[in-house]
């Protein structure tokens, strides 16, 4: 355990060095969020029908996604892990007395937390200061805030567990770009990262709610604004726990299988 | 300590001829070439030995090391190190070994060296007193004190390699695997690395498996060498024995005063090189002794300098590679 905590700490500390990259990322994420809300605002205004999610709730959804991007998107891959598989650096990691899965999990989680810690608060702060309807509302009550916190924590763990599945496939494809493109594009869409899932057509929703991806974004961001009210929120958190278990098991199985048949690259 | 029995490993490599047609065909049907990296290799290593593992590129050295360190699973055969089967008991086993891959780094690139060391001692679950003591010893032996607080990316290759060696020894392993530890190093750094390996082997009795292309490493360190070629073990024995069996051809270089001379009269001797005042002769010592040749030379010439050379380990290796056609 000591080793996993230690690598977590070191990865956070070394991740915090990249402030300029974070600065550039913040601006991009902020403007992307603002534009998304503008587009949705026009869409809400032009439609006469009542929408399944209010514009304020959608704004909160989008600001949370944009500020917590680093924690929940799969296209953010930990370059170090992907590279270590492709270049064969993984051989060193296999000569250490730890389970590769747990070690990478700790490392990947730390990487996301470090990147997230640098970026989330400036965006949230700025979004709090905007005029309505762009403004980020606070959660309706403390209970919702607590539920959001736990749901968000689970989201992050599920994201890392999904990323681990992705890393295991790199052993077969040997191109991180391929595995990521295949996995990340689809997963972000199905997580509700492009358009919030409640605004999707019924058949997309039917598909999305059968897969694990929605538990990484749709669940916590809707819990925050109260769009998933109390009993539903708990139910969704239970679903998160279940999916976390499933993705952990699958990832470990795939990685173990991949390691049994690896050929280390490059001498 | 280490027993390797009948180990084989084959790699499957996607094989594609060049050109558009082949590229398109390979989308549907891929052909694979099978490369036998190790072909029923067996050997054993005793505690405290320094084993030099040599062979041309692609001979299977690294594959053997990766099997012995638990990274790769062989297709057939068995390997036991200290009673463990490396790839089966990987996590328990690797606690007892240290590894340096000369072409890679085990240190974190963008943090100071000491941070990597602290991480490693946590990974190996060492008590802080034990790890501090070992680190102090290693720091002193490898002269690391000025390097510990520098980020790894700013170290020279020689400095980094010293840090890598220390990293592989922090947990007091019983076996040390060094895969090309002197690759790319300058002469001074090489000497330092060699000296250190020798000292640590003598002081702690750690068993060392060393692969290298630098025969000077082997000569300075190895008690025993193994030559691998095309996945097969071609020689296993001491350097002295190897040299003895190849010592039959000696080279004599002579310098002399009087003008052009002819050497054809001396039997079992060939002229490797000759110019006015200087000549190099190869002597087959199974047929004629070196002193006989020198006697005959001094009878006809006024010699100013005589220099007798045994074949270098390097040239023996070249000869061995040629003999086995590898």
Question: What is the structure about, briefly put?
Answer:
By secondary structure, chain A is mainly α. Helix content of chain A is 74%, strand content 0%. Helices cover 35% and strands 29% of the residues of chain B.
List its salient traits.
heterodimer, A: mainly alpha, 11 helices, 74% helix, B: 326 residues, alpha/beta, Rossmann fold, Alpha-Beta Plaits, 2 domains
Overall structural class of chain A, as computed from helix and strand content, comes to mainly alpha
Total helix count of chain B?
Answer: 11
Tell me, rounded to a whole number, the average pLDDT of chain A. 89
Strand element count of chain B: 13
Radius of gyration of chain B: 25 Å
Treating each run of at least 4 consecutive H or I residues as one helix, how many helices of chain A? 11
Total tally of structural domains of chain A: 1
Categorize the overall geometry of chain A: globular
Please give the largest β-sheet of chain A. Answer: none
- Order of H and E elements of chain A: HHHHHHHHHHH
Reading the helices and strands of chain B in chain order gives EHEEHEHEHHHEHEHEEHEEEHEH
């Amino acid at each position: 355990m000591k080793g996993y905590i230690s690598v977590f700490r070191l990865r956070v500390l070394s991740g915090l060095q990249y402030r300029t990259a974070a600065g550039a990322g913040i601006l991009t994420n902020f403007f992307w969020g603002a534009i998304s809300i503008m587009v949705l605002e026009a869409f809400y205004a032009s439609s006469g029908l009542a929408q399944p999610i209010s514009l304020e709730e959608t704004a909160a959804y989008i600001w949370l996604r944009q500020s917590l991007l680093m924690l929940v998107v799969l296209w953010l891959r930990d370059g170090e892990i992907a590279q270590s598989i492709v270049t064969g650096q993984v051989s060193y990691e296999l000569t250490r007395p730890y389970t590769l899965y747990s070690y990478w999990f700790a490392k990947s989680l730390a990487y996301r937390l470090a990147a997230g810690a640098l970026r989330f608060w400036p965006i949230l702060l700025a979004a709090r200061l905007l005029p309505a309807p762009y403004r980020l509302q606070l959660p309706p009550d403390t209970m919702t805030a607590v539920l959001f916190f736990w749901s968000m924590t689970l989201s992050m763990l599920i994201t890392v567990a999904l990323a681990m599945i992705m890393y295991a496939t790199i052993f077969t494809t040997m191109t991180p770009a391929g595995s990521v493109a295949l996995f990340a594009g689809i997963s972000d869409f199905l997580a509700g990262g492009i358009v919030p899932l409640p605004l999707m057509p019924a058949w997309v929703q039917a598909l999305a709610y059968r897969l694990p991806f929605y538990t990484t974004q749709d669940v916590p961001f809707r819990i925050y604004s109260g769009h998933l009210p109390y009993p539903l929120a708990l139910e969704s958190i239970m679903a998160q726990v279940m999916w976390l278990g499933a993705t952990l098991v699958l990832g470990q199985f795939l990685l173990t299988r991949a390691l049994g048949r690896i050929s280390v690259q490059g001498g | 300590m280490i027993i390797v029995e009948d180990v084989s490993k084959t790699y499957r490599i996607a094989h594609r001829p060049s050109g558009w047609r082949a590229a398109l065909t390979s989308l549907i049907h891929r052909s694979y070439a099978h490369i036998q990296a190790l072909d029923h290799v067996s050997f054993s290593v005793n505690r405290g030995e320094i084993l030099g593992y040599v062979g041309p590129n692609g001979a299977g050295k690294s594959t053997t090391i990766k099997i012995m360190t638990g990274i790769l699973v062989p297709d057939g055969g068995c390997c036991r190190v200290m009673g463990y089967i490396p790839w089966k008991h990987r996590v328990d086993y690797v606690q007892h070994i240290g590894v340096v891959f000369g072409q890679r780094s085990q240190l974190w690139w963008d943090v100071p060296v000491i941070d990597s060391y602290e991480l490693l001692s946590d990974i190996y679950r060492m008590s802080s007193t034990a790890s501090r003591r070992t680190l102090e010893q290693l720091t002193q032996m490898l002269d690391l004190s000025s390097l510990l607080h520098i980020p790894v990316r700013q170290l020279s290759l020689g400095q980094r390699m010293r840090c890598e060696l220390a990293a592989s020894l922090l947990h007091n392993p019983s076996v040390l695997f060094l895969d090309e530890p002197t690759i790319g190093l300058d002469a001074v750094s090489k000497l330092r690395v060699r000296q250190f390996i020798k000292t640590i082997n003598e002081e702690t009795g750690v068993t060392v498996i060393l692969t290298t292309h630098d025969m000077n490493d082997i000569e300075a360190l190895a008690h025993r060498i193994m030559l691998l070629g095309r996945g097969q073990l071609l020689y296993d024995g001491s350097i002295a024995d190897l040299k003895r069996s190849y010592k039959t051809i000696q080279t004599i270089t002579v310098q002399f005063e009087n003008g052009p001379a002819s050497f054809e009269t001396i039997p079992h001797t060939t002229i490797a090189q000759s110019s006015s005042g200087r000549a190099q002769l190869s002597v087959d010592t199974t047929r004629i002794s070196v002193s006989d040749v020198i006697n005959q030379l001094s009878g006809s010439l006024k010699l100013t300098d005589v220099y007798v050379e045994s074949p270098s380990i390097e040239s023996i290796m070249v000869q061995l590679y040629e003999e086995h056609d590898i």
